[in-house]
Structures are given as structure tokens and as C-alpha cells.
Amino acid sequence: MVEGGKFDRKNDLQYPAEVSNFRLDKYEVTVGRFRTFVAATSGGWLPSSGSGKHAHVNDGKGLIASGGGGFETGWQSAWNTEVPATKADWNAVDALACSEAYKTWTLTKGTNESLPINCVDWPVAYAFCIWDGGFLPSATERDYAASGGKEQRLYPWGSDTPGMNTALAVYDCYFGGGAGSCTGLANIAPAGSVQAGAGRWGQLDLAGNVFEWTLDWNSPGSAECVDCAILTESTNHVRVGGSFASATSWLQNFSTGGVYTITPKPYEYGFRCARTP
Prior knowledge:
Blueprint: E1 5-8, E2 16-19, E3 23-24, H1 31-42, H2 87-91, H3 122-131, H4 139-147, E4 211-213, E5 225-226, E6 237-240, E7 259-260, E8 269-270, E9 274-275
Parallel strand pairs: 2-5, 4-8
Antiparallel strand pairs: 1-2, 3-9, 4-6, 6-7
């Protein structure tokens, strides 16, 4: 559970926000968890149109889009084609294999089941969270959790700068002994490996291991938001949190990681889900 409240997005006094209570998964989605989702979609499951909203806010209408854009739409049927429909589709070379050296997905169960799933694009992450009974967190919610809300932490764990090791976060290729030079899967840690780096509400890997998709693009210049008011665009979404290959600066809570289109899936991308309180 993440207890809602007021804070400043990106630790900037110019961009205050108010967040309602919500739950955020303790762990990034792993290969093992994702495997059951692959089985479900291979059996014909797809999100229903309009599903995946923040149904606990605004009388079930979901988040408010800033700029007078109404409420979040939930899943759109136009995205159905972005979710592989058969096992053969999932096993295709481009489905979950954006990098031979760094892909965590395997066609059959193996030693990667506890690693975070990567090479995932935004629609697939969104669909998984709907299937799993939740939704993708908004950029504001994810920022709020990583900042410890009103504590306005520089990093999820506090203000201590991580050293040249993995004592607080999996980053800069230090996991697996890379010391600034990544070599492959050995540099990606099993989800939740670094307990000392936990956020205020217990979530692990909020900084490092894999960047995480969020629901939306939260425009830094938008007005004060209520219940995580957002600027929702179907083609622009934020990745946050830094990755196993990121420098220290990407781990800080004022770093968005950038705004990206709906379907890129580099090996640094993963996600976690949020849920109603």
C-alpha cells in the first residue's frame, strides 16, 4: 500500500501534485510471472475495451487528463494487435528478443524465471497488468512512490549516493562484476535482490535493474494535478527508475528516463503493476 498525499513531482516546487491511496507491486514483473500471461494470451485472452482504468478515483472514471482532455480511456481495442495472439507469435524472433545478449525471456522454463522480464513494449506491459488484476501506474504515482511522497527523497531509499557496487541498487553494470562495462545477462539481478534499496513503502528496485513503463506522459509543465491528473497520449509514455546499465544520475527521482513512443522495447525496459487500495 502507498499512502496518498501531496508532493512535488520531480522534487520541483513548481509542479505540486496530490495522489490518492493505491497499491504498487513490491517487485518488477519477472519472467516466471510473465510466462503465465503468455499462456493466457495464447489461449485467446485479450483485455476488454476500457479496462485497466484507475477505477478507485473520480467515481470510477479514472484519472483526469490535464488540459481538459477528460478521463483516461483504459485499454483501446486498436492495441489488440500489439499483443501476440499465439504461442508461435510469442516465440517469434522479435516478440521478446530485442537483444540476444540481454533478453531474459526463454522459450521454456530455465534459470531466468526470477529475472525481470525485459524487451517488453508499452501495450504488452499494460495488457499484463490488466490480466493480473491491476493497471500500469501513472508517471505521477510512480514518482510519488519512489520519492517517498512528502519525504521527497532523492533516491527511493533516501539521500545516500550509491557506491561503486550493488549495495543500494543494480546499476552501471556493477552486478555480475562488470564495473561499468556490461557483458550480458549476468549484469541483471533477480527481482528484489537489493533489500537495502527499498522505498518508503517497501517496493524494491524502484531505482535500477530495469527501467519501468508508466501509463502516461506526465508533462512537467502541466498545472497542479488532483488524483494524479495526467496528460495522456496514446503514443507517448515515460520509462522511469534507471536500469542495470544506467549511471547514478538515472536513479535519482527527478529523472524521467525520457518520453518514448508506444512500441520500442530495448533490453533495459521492464515494468511493475499498480492496484486499487
